[in-house]
Task: structure prediction
Amino acid sequence: MTNAQNKIIKNYKREIRYLFPIFTKNEKRFFIDICNTITDYTTDNEDFTLESLTQNIGEPKDIVSRYLLDMDGEILRKSLSRNQYVRFSLVIIAFVIIATSAFKIGTDYLAFLEATDAYIHREIIETTIYEESATPPEDTTE
Result:
């Protein structure tokens, strides 16, 4: 098998994988079965191309759509609903983390500004020299 054929197989499998709106254990099992089918086809036909692969196995979008049409509607609805809740929860969690981080950065910056205002940049030392002065004579007139 050539490098170009390996690339064709890899891209074909990747496209099938990304077309699934959900990927639970049933979809994983189906994906593994499709991968085994692809492997069997490519080992039997050494000189395959993308066109022959899609002709014999099918377009990736057709494979996934057939799987989803054969799937029980209630299971699909529950899976998609659960997937929607998980995505919504992740968005909320990300928003809370970003808001908390922004608040923390803001308070740290305000503390930094206060600290720079309170910092003594230099110290001025004043020396005062006291000299003894001559004391005036005492008055003895009393």
